[in-house]
Design brief:
Helix content: 40-55%
Number of domains: 1
Strand content: 5-15%
Distance between the termini: 26 Å
Largest sheet: 2 strands, antiparallel
Structural class: mainly alpha
Number of strands: 4
Strand order of the largest sheet: 1-2
Amino acid sequence: MSSTTPLSPRAPTHGERPYPIRVHAHPDSPPSRWLWLVKWLLILPHALVLVPLWIAFLLLSLVALVAIVATGRYPRPIFDFNVGVLRWSWRVGYYAYSALATDRYPPFTLAEVPGYPAGLTVDYPARLHRGLVLVKWLLAIPHLLIVGVLFGGGGWLTWQAGDQAWLWGGGGVTGLLVLVAAILLAVTGTYPRPLFDLILGLNRWALRVGGYTALMTDRYPPFRLDLGGDDPSTSPSEPTTPSEDPALRSIPAGG
């Protein structure tokens, strides 16, 4: 696929500030034709851990809100923990029913794992607007309506809480596309690259909105579908992924 096609990952324009929430992934190995049928069972240990982690996430976000209003700063230990919960959830979703794009079992850690094919990073904000944190939920309503369509309304919130096993990525448009990917894997043994790029773009949109509503940045999420595994916010110093290789346009399935 050439870089000029509509499904190519978008490159940042000259002078554009990178968005501080970066979601990246790459198809590092052929997915199995049939493993997706039992991934709901395989991720149960992760779900059991993620549910209490998300409860802690919500409670600590309230503590962070008070701290931001009082000091203009997001307490760094809480920030690192909350980013870790988002990161862990994204890895599980990428393995399971938010993408089905890898068969590598996700690690049990809040930290970034350089060797894993999916990751998430968020720049720590030096300062945050004290008043803006009180209305971000209101400002995010247009995005939340879109995410509701993409991930099936309230299903996205439970997807964020680690219940991907039951929701096919939360339902909605994304869940339907992931189901199509699963059927294509079983029937043809391939995961079409345009479909992979689109599913990654939809997840990236949702995770940006999640980070914004969790008060991690004052930068309003763009109304933009950045397709592909390489986040356009990735700086030149950050490692690129194999997703730039045209040979990976269609990901063959193993087994």
